[in-house]
């Protein structure tokens, strides 16, 4: 089974109103195990809407979302939330780390919420931080870290509960070009080493070219770049 399958996804905002916007008009996508797909879209094309539907944060008007072969259509909020917490990791342009907690604690907390012991959560958080090259920064709060370091912590947090699918929206879009390039390399290394499947939105065609497959969101549907 694909890790993510979208079939005929349609979504409008303000349906039936004069200001209706049909954002998605039949999105089909299958992301294979271990595959990393680039989602290239100009601002306003609907990539956030698509990522939120794929990650079960929003529902489509039509079509189906299946995660690891399980059809999510018609499932209740409790089951959707459970699948999201267990199987999906999110990364945004801004890190959204909790400012009063250390880097390590930011990666420990989602694990504790998932029932992992403190000891195991601490150990896995350190392993992830070392993997992205910032083990020495584990005890620092986000404000004491550089922008690139903050994003690396956010990557570790997204992976803390060992998801099957990573959804990222401009994961290095807030960094200067040199740092972006380097931090993107770190993200790809982490994804490859953990065998994750990913859908990563970016405006940057050079970054997109480093992924397995490139798709563009064009008038509400996905087309090869
Ligand atoms: P992107 O992430 O590609 O910039 P979005 O998915 O955020 O695009 O938005 C796609 C379109 O839908 C935009 O025209 C946006 O203004 C519109 N839109 C997004 N969210 C809403 C909403 N809650 N209500 C009405 N229109 C929205
Ligand atoms: P929590 O365990 O904090 O309640 P949730 O199940 O609400 O987590 O969310 C799971 C993931 O979805 C988290 O990574 C969170 O950042 C993200 N998330 C939750 N709600 C939203 C939202 N409205 N917009 C974007 N991301 C969200």
TrEMBL record:
Domain of life: Bacteria
PROSITE patterns (alphabetical): ABC_TRANSPORTER_1, ABC_TRANSPORTER_2
Entry-linked SMART domains: AAA
Any single Pfam family the record assigns to this protein: ABC_tran
Domain ABC transporter: 4-225
GO cellular component, one term: plasma membrane
Record keywords: ATP-binding, Nucleotide-binding, Transport
Signal peptide location: none
Record field: transmembrane: none
GO biological process: lipoprotein localization to outer membrane; protein localization to outer membrane
GO MF entries: ATP binding; ATP hydrolysis activity; transmembrane transporter activity
PANTHER family associated with the record: IMPORT ATP-BINDING PROTEIN, LIPOPROTEIN-RELEASING SYSTEM ATP-BINDING PROTEIN LOLD
Family: Belongs to the ABC transporter superfamily.
The protein's name in its UniProt record: ABC transporter ATP-binding protein
Originating species: Sulfitobacter sabulilitoris
């Amino acid at each position: 089974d694909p890790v993510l399958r979208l079939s005929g996804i349609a979504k409008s905002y303000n349906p039936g109103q004069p200001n209706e916007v049909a954002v998605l008009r039949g999105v089909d996508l299958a992301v294979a195990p271990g595959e990393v797909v680039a989602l290239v879209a100009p601002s306003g094309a609907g990539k956030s809407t698509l990522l939120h539907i794929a990650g079960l944060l929003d529902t489509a008007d039509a079509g189906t979302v299946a995660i690891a072969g399980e059809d999510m259509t018609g499932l209740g909020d409790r089951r959707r939330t459970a699948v999201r917490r267990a199987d999906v990791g999110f990364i945004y342009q801004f890190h959204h780390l909790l400012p009063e907690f250390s880097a390590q604690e930011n990666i420990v907390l989602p694990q504790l919420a998932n029932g992992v012991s403190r000891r195991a959560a601490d150990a896995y958080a350190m392993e992830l931080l070392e993997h992205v090259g910032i083990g020495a920064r584990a005890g620092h709060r986000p404000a004491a870290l550089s922008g690139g370091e903050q994003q690396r912590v956010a990557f570790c947090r997204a992976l803390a509960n060992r998801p099957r699918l990573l959804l990222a929206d401009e994961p290095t879009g807030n960094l200067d070009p040199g740092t972006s390039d380097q931090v993107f390399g770190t993200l790809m290394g982490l994804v490859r080493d953990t065998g994750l499947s990913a859908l990563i939105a970016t405006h940057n065609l050079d970054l997109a070219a480093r992924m397995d497959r490139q798709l563009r969101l064009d008038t509400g549907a996905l087309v090869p770049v």
